[in-house]
Write a structure and sequence with these properties.
single chain; about 475 residues; alpha/beta; eleven-stranded mixed sheet; 15 helices
């Protein structure tokens, strides 16, 4: 059984832990052993918190043995992107600037997971400050995609998505400003959810864009993502963007029944605005057929062109991220990677009037989206334009040259999830994106769960090899 522990879902692991059929310590050791065997090749972890993880697992085991059970995350091993502060554990943002940074506090999401009794395995790789990479001039080598290690996992939460796909963590946290949870989730064939702006506190997370940043779960299954979201969501007055709303029972929404739901298909994002490959389109048609057979009412809708959302996002994000790092960019430019500087320095050239107009434009786009969503329960579009690119084929100008298909739902602010909807003949994942009304993560998860249950994609796992031993 030990060999399979890293592929248990949160729900099943939690059931066994609560029934005292599974030791949190044994589960944690299984993950630590797997990380030791595989991660020297995959490069998912920047810092492994072995001793702390075992200590937290032992505490969880003692509490459960004494009759105290904190909920579904009690004793569950997880990991977090390295732009999320962890007290006493190095937090670097994968930048030379913060190589020796050991925070004295936990981010709000870490506080919540500690209260839930979860077990922190360590800190996961990301593009530099969630914006610049992959790059060879960063402190750690780029993460590899566990489905095929010649390919990238996507960014900027690539370490989080790759770790979950490879069975190096049961679940993980990422951050998403324009697609940084959803894109790597798509490339790595896992579930990634960007919550509504304000649903999850960003206190203690290194900022990228104050107006757009979100934090959310990456998991193997929709159910696991729902459980993780429930653990970290909630109002926090320390985050000025946090919204005071009750947190629903996201797991209870996973009924499997989507009959009668109205789903709009944003087909022009991947057929007109930036045409995807025939294979991506074919996979989308198959996914839409599944949703229709499940009883949803599926019809085409149109939003603004994708490029309009991308331009709005860029004119907001660029000056905001430049403002975060301006002093260090001026005093210590050598501490940043070349790609980060290439992408951030143009923020110094954005005029105040252009930033204000972009914020006004965002309000208009968000209002149009809310009006459209009076007629629909959710929207769907492709999650990625094609399978993960090969390592070495990345161009630093990519963020400027073409828009990401995820960006519109960052600008409009509502929840959006990426889930696997098939594989290439060589075994690389494709992805479907589901977006919902603001603060209606429950419906997004409900649709994703129904699709997941009706399709075979969760039956296939990547099998990364241990180079030393040649075993998965």
């Amino acid at each position: 059984m030990a060999a399979d522990l890293h592929f248990l879902g949160i729900a099943e692991a939690s059931r066994r832990i609560r029934a005292r059929e599974l030791s949190p310590v044994a589960l944690t050791r299984a993950f630590l052993d797997r990380i030791e065997a595989l991660d020297s090749h995959l490069h998912c972890y920047l810092t492994l918190a072995r001793e702390q993880a075992l200590g937290e697992a032992e505490q969880a085991e003692r509490e459960i043995a004494a009759g105290t059970w904190r909920g579904p995350m009690h004793g569950i091993p997880y990991a977090v992107k390295d732009n999320i502060e962890t007290a006493g554990i190095r937090t670097t943002g994968n930048s030379k600037l913060l190589l020796d940074n050991i925070p004295g506090r936990d981010a709000a999401v870490i506080e919540r997971l500690k209260r839930a009794g979860a077990v922190l395995l360590g800190k996961l790789a990301c593009d530099e400050f969630a914006h610049g990479g992959p790059s060879d001039d960063l402190p750690w080598p780029p993460t590899r995609n566990p489905w095929n290690t010649e390919h990238m996992p996507g960014g900027s939460s690539g370490g989080s998505a790759a770790a979950v796909a490879a069975g190096l963590a049961l679940t993980a946290l990422g951050t998403d400003t324009g697609g940084s949870i959803r894109s790597p989730a798509g490339y790595c064939g896992v579930v990634g959810l960007k919550p509504t702006y304000g649903r999850v506190s960003r206190f203690g997370i290194i900022p990228n864009s104050f107006s757009l940043d979100t934090c959310g779960p990456i998991a193997w299954s929709v159910e696991d993502a729902a459980l993780m979201l429930a653990a970290v969501a909630g109002h926090d007055p320390r985050d000025p963007g946090s919204i005071e709303l009750p947190v629903p029972d996201f797991r209870a929404a996973l009924t499997g029944d989507i009959r009668g739901l109205r789903i709009g298909v944003v087909r022009h994002f991947y057929e007109e605005d930036l045409p995807a490959s025939p294979e991506v389109r074919a996979n989308m048609e198959a996914a839409l057929g599944v949703l229709a057979r499940l009883g949803a009412e599926v019809e085409d809708v149109r939003l603004r062109p994708l490029q309009e959302y991308a331009a709005c996002k860029m004119m907001i994000q660029l000056p905001e991220i430049y403002a975060v790092f301006e002093e260090d960019l001026q005093r210590r430019p050598e501490s940043f990677g070349a790609i980060f500087k290439y992408r951030v320095l143009p923020g110094a050239l954005v005029r105040g009037v252009d930033y204000v107009q972009a914020q006004r434009k965002r309000r208009q786009l968000a209002a149009e989206y809310r009006e459209l969503m009076r007629r629909y329960d959710a929207l769907v579009t492709s999650g990625i334009y094609g399978p993960a690119p090969k390592i070495g084929r990345f161009e630093r100008k990519g963020k400027f040259a073409k828009p990401s298909i995820t960006v519109a739902f960052s600008v409009t602010g509502g929840p959006a999830a990426s889930i696997c909807n098939g594989f290439t003949p060589s075994g690389l994942p494709y992805a479907l994106q589901i977006a919902g009304r603001p603060f209606d993560e429950a419906t997004v998860l409900r649709i994703a769960h129904a699709y997941e249950a009706a399709t075979p994609w969760r039956r296939t796992r990547p099998a990364p090899q241990d180079r030393a031993q040649g075993t998965p």
